[in-house]
Design brief:
3 domains, 787 residues, 20 helices, 29% helix, Aldehyde Oxidoreductase, domain 3, binds dioxothiomolybdenum(VI) ion, 7-stranded mixed β-sheet, Aldehyde Oxidoreductase, domain 4, alpha+beta, 6-stranded mixed β-sheet
């Protein structure tokens, strides 16, 4: 298709202000390079139909009715004839040799199917990045709750009794339980140095700066583990036999990750493995990798018994055995001039990966790239590493390492500002990166970035300056102290660096015989709105109603590999493929002569029907191509880390009770620039949910460890914020359309996890005068400093 509009006109259309949710949103003047051919396709398809288009409107959630009426079927709602249940027998120790396994008690063991590592037909590891994690421990165990044996039986209550009567004898070995002990190599528990992965980012030379610097400021910052706590626990059902291969249904983010892992586990050809995502009650990263494990377990039991096997974790098992957010330690050394310009930043970022590598390299990567934030500094060195401990592997959780490193940075910059006698906002303002300047990886910012304007607006919306003044003047003897603080940050969308190029994601679109369009994608709906925004993007591109669009259930036998549902990539990366796939359909229909430009919806539907009747099925596929001028060096960790970033300033107002030492967030302003907003209600929901989850990360969610095991693995003692603990979260968007996102959209899912923790601790510092540098910040810790 050709671009029939001059570039400026494209922009005039695309940069129209957001309607609906936020009337105050203003729009930046367009300044990014003109659209490439894909963008022009979007525009020409919009011609004359602006008012009927659905991007920018809060279309109702596609599967909302099914969910609220209870018609949606989750994995535990499904049963199959002759289905058995499966359970997992897990390690009771952190590290050691498995000496003996005995089947004790008054249990009819002959009726129970037992699977051990010896029963695995293929390779005994969960294929992911470096394949060090076994499906079933074989002779050695490296963390508490590691899977050792699987049991299956039709009676799940008998099975639970049986699980308790498996006796495993161990020869215990010394183990590591803290990041510090691992860094200090108190024991070597993984490889030669306990290090799964490390990165070095160098810009300029920080070593040349220290001596001549006006001021050098050091700091150390810590973040704790956090449980994803999706509403629906992990669960799967498998059918597996040599004749038909392996089929798995389950709650998951990434059907093709599970597919890849099962191919190796069973040593079967790809077409003998089928993975189907069922309705999924939340993921937050927690269902990125673990479903490959539980799917393999159910499939191994199914393979041995010849019957369908269901494994559903209860909450306690899900919390104690599956992944959490990586705990972290960050050290900063920063040089500044007298007038508050950053001249050198040296950052040492370490995350605790747990017992196996799993996704730690990618979590570390994102944490590393975000560690120096949206600031311009000529000399930066970031060293980072992910290290091993004998806890269950830590994994993906909303933000992928960025919330950890951004927390450290924003806390540290408050300290630096204080040291040179500048207000936190004035100090940030003097150092924000702007168009044409470079980030820590020397990525040249090629889009209009106005962090200073975002900051102004966020501080105005929150009445920041007036409140600082007011709180400072309040009675120093009062029991309740009030404070206000902010954080400024950015978050890259999509896979890091060349990641999207390697993924080669594909999306299909099908015109059906009944005159509808079906999106074929492996991107999963996990509550965040994938089905709805894909329908809106497709409808917008075709000039039809969103109701005309169906989204296929992710099933590896019928949808292409669109990559994983992670990393804030679904809207921006996969959504763009949805857009170009449906434009391919339209092009084919027009090319066949069955459809004329300027069509209405009826004509479009008729064209689909006639095409299928005359020529058979019509499917078009679109494959990812990187935007031009995105260059990334994986060796040096230099260049364009992401195609684009979302930019944000969050402001928190808190009260601290000097009797109970509780902190309450009283007001929260979340202002962000995320490109075009596809669906204002869903987008605001993402921000509100992420901020709520981040408030939990900051003030409530405390994983208590005992020798590598979480011991508060229930919702009665792992406390998350309730509605009473969450303030009004005031969400504001600015729109600066991104040329290579669908209708100009960027990613949004992870961003809101980044800003709350540093903003809240900054507000607590403002309230109490004490600079806390770790989360979760529990009342006990506050009491220690404030009493
Ligand atoms: Mo997410 S932490 O990218 O699953």
């Amino acid at each position: 298709m050709s671009c029939s509009f001059p570039a400026l006109k494209c922009w005039a259309i695309l940069s129209r202000p957001l309607r609906g949710l936020n009337k105050n949103a203003k729009t930046f003047a367009p300044s990014v390079a003109p659209f490439g051919p894909l963008g022009c396709n979007v525009i020409s398809s919009m011609s004359g139909k602006i008012n009927e288009h659905v991007v920018g409107k809060s279309a109702p959630r596609k599967e909302g009715r099914r969910k609220v009426t209870g018609a949606a079927l989750y994995i535990d709602d499904l049963t199959f004839p002759e289905m058995l249940h499966g359970v997992t027998v897990r390690s009771s120790i952190a590290r050691g040799l498995i000496k003996n396994i005995a089947f004790a008690g008054d249990i009819p063991w002959a009726e129970i199917t037992v699977v051990t590592a010896k029963d695995i037909p293929g390779e005994n590891h969960v294929a992911l990045i470096i394949n060090d994690q076994p499906y079933l421990a074989d002779g050695v165990t490296n963390h508490p709750e590691e899977a050792i044996i699987l049991l299956a039986h039709a009676d799940k209550y008998l099975l639970e009794e049986a699980r308790r009567n498996v006796r495993i004898d161990y020869d215990e070995s010394p183990a590591l339980f803290t990041l510090e002990d691992s860094v200090n190599k108190k024991e070597i528990i993984w490889g030669e140095d306990n290090v799964f992965k490390s990165f070095l980012v160098e810009k300029g030379n920080v070593d040349d700066v220290w001596e001549s610097a006006d001021l050098v400021v050091d700091g150390e910052y810590h973040t704790g583990a956090q449980e994803q706590l999706y509403i629906e626990n992990n669960g799967v059902i498998a059918i597996a036999n040599p004749a038909e291969g392996v089929t798995v249904w389950g709650s998951m983010q990434c059907p093709y990750y599970v597919h890849k892992a099962l191919v190796k586990l069973f040593a079967l050809p790809e077409d003998k493995i089928r993975v189907i995502q069922t309705e999924t009650g939340g993921g937050f990263g927690g269902k990125e990798e673990y479903p490959s494990m539980i799917a393999g377990h159910a499939a191994l039991l199914a393979w041995k018994t010849g019957k369908p096997v269901k494994i559903i974790y209860d909450r306690a098992e899900d919390m104690v055995a599956t992944t959490k957010r990586h705990p972290s330690r960050t050290r900063h050394r920063t040089a500044v001039t007298k007038d508050g310009k950053l001249t050198a930043m040296e950052i040492d970022f370490v995350i605790d990966g747990g017992a196996y590598c799993t996704l730690s390299p990618v979590v570390l990567s994102r944490g590393t790239i975000h560690a120096a934030g949206p600031y311009s500094c000529p000399n930066v060195r970031i060293r980072s590493s992910a290290v091993a401990t004998n806890t269950p592997p830590h994994g993906a959780f909303r933000g992928f390492g960025a919330p950890q490193s951004i927390f450290a940075l924003e806390r540290h910059l408050d300290k630096v500002a204080h040291a040179i006698g500048l207000e936190p906002d004035e100090f940030r303002r003097r150092n924000f990166v702007t168009e044409g300047q470079t980030t820590a990886t020397s990525q040249v910012i090629r889009e209009k970035v106005e962090m200073g304007q975002l900051l102004d607006r966020a501080l105005k919306l929150s009445d920041y300056h007036a409140k600082r003044e007011k709180f400072a003047g309040e009675n120093p003897t009062s029991r309740i102290k009030k404070g206000i603080g902010f954080a400024s940050f950015m978050h890259g969308a999509g896979f890091t660096g060349s990641g999207e190029v390697y993924l080669q994601s594909v999306v299909g679109a099908e015109a059906t015989a009944d005159g509808r369009v079906k999106i074929l994608s492996a991107s999963t709906e996990i509550g965040q709105g994938t089905n709805t925004i894909f329908s809106q993007i497709a409808a917008d591109a075709l000039g039809v109603d969103a109701d005309l669009i169906d989204v296929a259930q992710p099933d590896t036998s019928s949808v292409p590999n669109s990559g994983p549902t992670v990393a804030s990539r679904t809207c921006m990366i996969v959504g763009k493929l949805v857009e170009s796939a449906v434009l391919g359909l339209k092009q084919t229909l027009i090319g066949s002569g069955l459809l004329q430009e300027g069509y209405d919806q009826k004509e479009f539907q008729n064209a689909c029907r006639h095409y299928v009747a005359q020529f058979g099925a019509l499917k078009t596929f679109s494959k990812y191509q990187p935007p031009p001028n995105v260059n990334w060096d994986d060796e040096k960790y230099q260049g364009d880390a992401y195609g684009t970033y979302a930019w944000a300033v969050y402001v928190a107002e808190v009260s601290v009770d000097l009797l109970t030492y509780e902190a309450h967030v009283q007001d929260f302003v979340a202002l962000q620039e995320v490109g075009r907003v596809i669906n204002p209600v869903l987008a605001a929901g993402q921000i509100e949910g992420g901020v709520g989850q981040a408030i939990g990360f900051t003030l409530f969610e405390n994983v208590v460890w005992d020798k590598g095991r979480m011991i508060n693995n229930q919702m009665t003692n792992y406390i998350i914020p309730t509605a009473a603990d969450i303030p009004p979260i005031r969400v504001f968007f600015e729109e600066n359309p991104y040329a290579y996102g669908p209708s100009g959209a960027k990613g949004i899912g992870e961003l809101p996890m980044d800003g709350a923790a540093p903003a809240i601790l900054s507000a607590i510092e403002n309230a109490t005068g004490v600079r806390f540098n770790h989360v979760p910040l529990m009342p006990e810790a506050m009491m220690k400093e404030l009493v």
